[in-house]
Structures are given as C-alpha cells and as structure tokens.
Write a structure and sequence with these properties.
Number of helices: 1
Largest sheet: none
Order of helices and strands: H
Number of strands: 0
Helix content: 40-55%
Structural class: mainly alpha
Shape: elongated
Radius of gyration: 17 Å
C-alpha cells in the first residue's frame, strides 16, 4: 500500500468484509429473486 496504510489494517478490513458478507448471506437465507426483464414487481 503506497499511501502509507498499515498492511495489518488492510488485512483486518478484508476479513471484516468477508465476515459481513457471510452474515448478510445468512440473514438472507431465503430464495433469491432473479431479475426478469420486463417483469413488474
């Protein structure tokens, strides 16, 4: 990281984003609604 960011900070943020992604997927455990072109919701 050329901007002076601590590599441990980048690792922490990466792991945190992974965790939040998994938690969001778990919270949204229902079936995903696929996009259908031209369909009205």
């Amino acid at each position: 990281y050329h901007g002076g960011m601590n590599p441990l900070t980048a690792t922490y943020l990466n792991r945190l984003s992974d965790l939040l992604f998994i938690l969001a997927r778990t919270a949204n455990a229902g079936d995903d609604v696929l996009w259908q072109p031209g369909a009205r919701s």
